[in-house]
Write a structure and sequence with these properties.
With 447 residues, the chain is α+β, with helices and mostly antiparallel strands. Helix content is 31%, strand content 23%. It folds into three domains: 163 residues, Rossmann fold (3-Layer(aba) Sandwich); 70 residues, Herpes Virus-1, CATH 3.30.40; 144 residues, Alpha-Beta Plaits, CATH 3.30.70.270. The longest helix is centred in the N-terminal third of the chain and has 17 residues. Bound molecules: zinc ion (3 copies). This is Thaumarchaeal output domain-containing protein.
Length: 447
């Protein structure tokens, strides 16, 4: 701890010296985090954004405290604050970074937890830019996780690692490509032409003729072009039709012009009601962050010692192979899915280490129910998928009941096991991976 305490004041400056901080370098790669765990950026705003992105993308430096002298577009979302907050925030971040339990191959959620838990003031803010196809992006997650950012965000919310905070905006996105660059244009309801005009019309009471007001105006007086009656008083000689619009393409008159939304990215034309409504939130720290930060990874590794353990990548291939065989030679094969539906809550209430121990115990008991020839795959943290060969879906009922009684491991009373089965083969016109994903989507849904 003494070493950490000494380090509170060791701040490297990137750019020109600030006050009495004279340890200056001009590149991120020259910042030595062992001698100077924190950094202060004193550069012009556009360069500052480049440096912030570089630091948060850098495996070695991304978690360190970073402060700025001036504000820039990304400083609120990628830095830890400004000169005024620096001396107060550095000790708490460094103290907590020192407590982190690092696991060697961090997964996206682990990285998010390591970054955000040490920062009590932490928020993930969205930033709007015309460059982003969806309008908003979360630069911090983009830096930490690259291409996995979007998927990781929804998983982080499912697992109570991040909690939606303030609502920042509500977007309407293209239903096809989810782009946010959309043009709204009103069209003729008869012929879909965009060449329409808002024009006052006139309805002659004498002969019933209806047309644009221009047509009735002759040398400054209003006269019906059909019956030549002079129209003096609204309500007596004429009135205004409700059809305020007219189409210059098909000459139809109409009351309301329907609006079409055309996506600039993919060209899809859709009704505004068909656009996908997408709220944009900022996010704050959820309960799981502390568990991951102090205990390492959030992934539970189940000791799948029975049967033939299989990786996720090989599962669809095997399903396809079994299905082709079954179509040719007959027989019964069944897929079983076991979903630990509230694992996230169990992890939070027990802590990761205890949850891991007890689930290991549960898996051991499960082992007795299956055979050497059954294939088992830990599809994700909370989903197990089994391929039960030579088993019809008629006998699964028995298995399911046995599995549900396994939950009586001490401390796991609150764990909910959802068990579903589906008979193979995969229909001939489908590929196994899609079939599996559709089934997962049907069964696994987080509240
Ligand atoms: Zn008339
Ligand atoms: Zn028209
Ligand atoms: Zn589109």
């Amino acid at each position: 701890m003494t070493r950490v305490a000494e380090n509170y004041t060791k701040v490297q400056v990137i750019g020109d010296p600030v006050q009495d901080m004279m340890d200056c370098v001009d590149k991120v790669s020259l910042w030595d985090i062992d001698s100077h765990p924190s950094v202060l950026l004193n550069v012009e705003p556009s360069r500052q954004d480049e440096l912030l992105v570089e630091i948060r993308c850098d495996d070695m430096r991304r978690l360190q405290p970073v402060f700025c002298v001036v504000k820039s577009k990304l400083s609120d979302v990628l830095a830890d604050g400004y000169l005024g907050d620096m001396w107060e925030r550095i000790p708490q971040v460094l103290d907590r970074l020192a407590l982190l339990h690092f696991s060697p191959h961090p997964e996206s959620l682990d990285l998010i937890a390591w970054y955000c838990w040490p920062r009590s003031y932490f928020h993930v803010h969205p930033v709007w830019s015309a460059e982003y196809q969806k309008g908003y992006s979360y630069p911090l997650l983009d830096c930490l996780l690259g291409g996995e950012a979007e998927l990781a965000l929804s998983r982080a919310v499912d697992h109570h690692l991040l909690v939606p905070g303030k609502l920042i905006d509500r977007l309407r996105l293209c239903r096809v490509c989810h782009g946010s660059r959309i043009n709204f244009v009103d069209v003729c309801p008869e012929c879909n032409s965009i060449d329409i005009h808002l024009k006052p019309g006139v309805h002659c009471f004498i002969c019933g003729y209806v047309d644009d007001q221009d047509v009735f105006m002759q040398s400054g007086i209003m006269q019906c072009p059909k019956c030549s009656t002079r129209l003096r008083h609204i309500g007596v000689d004429y009135d205004r039709p409700l059809e305020r619009y007219s189409c210059l393409s098909c000459y139809a008159r109409f009351i309301e012009a329907p609006v079409k939304a055309r996506c600039h990215d993919c060209g899809e034309i859709q009704s505004p009601d068909d656009l996908t409504v997408s709220p944009v939130h900022e996010f704050t720290l959820g309960k799981l962050a502390r568990q991951i930060a102090l205990e390492g990874s959030h992934m539970l590794h189940l000791p799948l010692t029975w049967g033939a353990p299989l990786t996720v990548d090989h599962l669809p291939w095997l399903m396809q192979w079994v299905s082709s065989n079954q179509r040719r030679y007959g027989g019964d094969n069944t897929m079983m899915m076991i979903w630990l539906s509230n694992l996230a809550e169990v992890k939070i209430s027990l802590g990761l280490t205890k949850a891991q121990e007890r689930i290991t115990e549960l898996v051991k008991r499960m082992q007795k129910l299956f055979r050497e020839t059954d294939v088992v795959c830990q599809y994700s943290d909370d989903v197990l998928i089994l391929l039960l060969s030579h088993t019809s879906d008629k006998v699964w009922e028995v298995l399911r009941n046995r599995i549900s009684t396994l939950g009586d491991v001490e401390g796991l009373e609150q764990l909910k096991l959802i068990v579903e089965v589906k008979a193979l083969p995969v229909p001939e016109d489908q590929i196994a991976e899609d079939w599996l994903k559709a089934w997962l989507a049907e069964v696994v849904h987080y509240e």
